[in-house]
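Hello Y.,

Per our agreement to keep a running log of every chain we model this quarter, I'm adding this entry. I've kept the format consistent with earlier entries: sequence first, then predicted structure.
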Amino acid sequence: MYRVIQWATGSVGRTTLRRIIDHPDLRLVGLYAYDPAKVGKDAGEIARRDATGVRATASIDDILAIDADVVIHTPRIGVPYDAQNGDLQRLLASGKNVISVNGFYRPAAQGAAYAQPLRAAALAGRSTLAGIGMNPGFVAERVAVMFSGLMAQLERIECFETVDCSLVPAADFLFGTLGFGTDPAAVDLAKGPLARLYTDLYRETFACVADAIGTQVGTLEEDHRLTACPRDLVLAAGTVRQGTVASTEWRWNARFADGRAMTHSVLWTVDPGLHGDSHAAHWRVRLHGRPNVSVDFRIDDPDPRAPPSRAAMDATAAVVIRAIPAVCAAPPGFFQLPAVLPFAQRL
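Predicted structure for the entry above:
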């Protein structure tokens, strides 16, 4: 039985919270919430489950006082990228393993000043910090790496994600965090804080892949692209006006030290039709060499009436929850993400 603290109760956090409550091998022992309206509420009420006896708190001191094996860390990532690190250092130093969806796949890729305080906290608490997620965390780091095993010679890796944001209900997330509706003449998103945030986040993806194929990142260049809205689009969260940003493609090109190359692209859009096939796969992986390998995959909810985001939330929760035994058994420090985590019968 693993004693688990859930940190944050947004869209991913509520999903992982439900999986923790429902799981026979997990026991929820703590819940951290940023929203004042949720503080004091029973976790079961927040997760639409029966009462658990665990109430949400906004005090990290309350969380630190709890005896727990692991903290599931799923807050919304924000600028600057390292703003979350202080909380994580305190959690690690208190002896709690941490699984985060907000990076930490290869902290050393961010430089010693970034990585050393996290490592020192983990070693002091004899705990482990793990980055686990879908993208980053799964598509390039695990899918691309695994399928490269079919190749006698690998020359180039390309990973593409397409995310339909048209049904995102949160206006602050769509128009604030993601930058849709921004006037490109007034603000260049491709060179602003959001671009720096994503570059910091995905820098570790390239480092992970380089490690897996036995090389290092030589150069990493940004190649971000914006698409203007051709007409007013009325969405669940509000209206994206004609001429403002309708899609952001965060794209990076890397050259590895051994001459091989990698491109990673994340396309967020309010209208997939602006980019061709509106029914394209969520993820496309292209491996070039001998032989070439192509992998297209998408995830869908079994209920056609479900919101489009639910399948992605379920998948993210699955890889996070399944990682708990491996992370808790790992030596103190940074967790080394394997290409495949074993599928356990119960976890």
